[in-house]
């Protein structure tokens, strides 16, 4: 892969210069919250700022953010704009989808460390064979992100070849839901309703998406400067967020998902306040 074109710009200070690209990038990133309803934009934005901490915190995030809605609700565009915090992404070209082989997706999930991986377009299939193939791919990938495991392999001489476990986060876009209830519990489902996204604000953010990596670069620099305190505070904050989200009637995994997203939002707002 030609990864060089996706690299972040040099890390700037977390104190943005007046009228500089970092300040404009911060404004553009914050405007993401206004392009649709809060129950769509806040989980996705929080997920973006959680991603760089994926392999640094324990427990690791153990769910997939699942953008679900009918065709034409801008699910893929939202996912691409989220991903644009990490590089130059203008369209779905080159991104993963459910036509890729499970082995290819597994390898990408391993390579894309501490960043989101988009898997696009879980849609109604024209044949039963295609439907079963997409369902199987979705099930394997969702469970691998949830369990943080990969398939073990053997070399031709029966020695251990190792495995590729996911090391980042995953955003899936879909028109349908996976079949198994146990798999659904591993998804944070964000429903994107028809006409929910403001097309004018969406287009504006698309036009300035090249500024978003400056916001993420500043955030990563801020994480680096504050890493000791961040890692020390995470266990207590995570337990508090999880306890606040828990009710008796919900699935046991939902409070954890909420806690991870709340922690991502906590870090993002602390970073913005510091800047």
Outline the structure in words.
This protein has 275 residues and is of the alpha/beta class. It is built from nine helices and seven strands. The chain has helices spanning 21-31, 38-50, 75-83, 102-111, 128-147, 181-184, 199-207, 212-245, 254-274, and strands at residues 64-68, 96-97, 116-122, 153-154, 160-162, 169-174, 187-191. The strands form two sheets. It has a five-stranded parallel β-sheet with strand order 2-3-6-1-7, sandwiched between helices.
DSSP summary, beta strand count: 7
Based on secondary structure, the structural category is alpha/beta
Strand order of the largest sheet: 2-3-6-1-7
Helix content: 40-55%
> What general outline do the C-alpha atoms trace?
globular
Low-confidence runs of at least 5 consecutive residues: 1-9
Strand content: 5-15%
Compile the SSE list and pairings.
Blueprint: H1 21-31, H2 38-50, E1 64-68, H3 75-83, E2 96-97, H4 102-111, E3 116-122, H5 128-147, E4 153-154, E5 160-162, E6 169-174, H6 181-184, E7 187-191, H7 199-207, H8 212-245, H9 254-274
Parallel strand pairs: 1-6, 1-7, 2-3, 3-6
Antiparallel strand pairs: 4-5
Helix pairs in contact: 1-8, 2-9, 4-5, 8-9
């Amino acid at each position: 892969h030609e990864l060089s074109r996706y690299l972040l710009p040099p890390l700037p200070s977390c104190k943005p210069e007046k009228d500089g690209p970092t300040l404009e990038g911060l404004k553009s990133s914050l405007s993401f919250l206004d392009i649709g309803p809060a129950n769509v934009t806040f989980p996705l934005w929080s997920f973006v700022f959680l991603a760089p901490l994926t392999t640094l915190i324990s427990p690791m995030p153990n769910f997939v953010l699942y953008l679900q809605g009918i065709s034409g609700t801008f699910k893929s565009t939202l996912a691409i704009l989220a991903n644009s915090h990490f590089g130059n992404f203008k369209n779905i070209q080159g991104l993963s989808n459910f036509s890729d082989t499970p082995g290819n997706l597994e390898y990408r999930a391993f390579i894309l460390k501490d960043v989101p991986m988009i898997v696009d377009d879980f849609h109604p299939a024209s044949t039963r064979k295609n439907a079963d193939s997409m369902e199987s791919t979705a099930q394997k990938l969702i469970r691998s992100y949830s369990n943080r495991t990969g398939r073990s392999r053997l070399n031709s001489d029966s020695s251990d070849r190792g495995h590729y476990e996911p090391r980042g986060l995953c955003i899936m876009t879909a028109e349908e839901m996976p079949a198994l209830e146990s798999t659904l519990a591993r998804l944070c489902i964000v429903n994107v309703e028809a006409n929910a996204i403001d097309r004018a604000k969406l287009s504006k953010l698309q036009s300035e998406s090249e500024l978003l990596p400056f916001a993420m670069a500043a955030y990563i620099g801020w994480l680096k400067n504050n890493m000791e305190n961040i890692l020390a505070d995470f266990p207590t904050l995570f337990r508090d967020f999880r306890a606040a989200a828990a009710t008796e009637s919900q699935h046991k995994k939902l409070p954890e998902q909420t806690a991870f997203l709340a922690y991502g939002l906590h870090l993002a707002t602390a970073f913005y306040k510091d800047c």
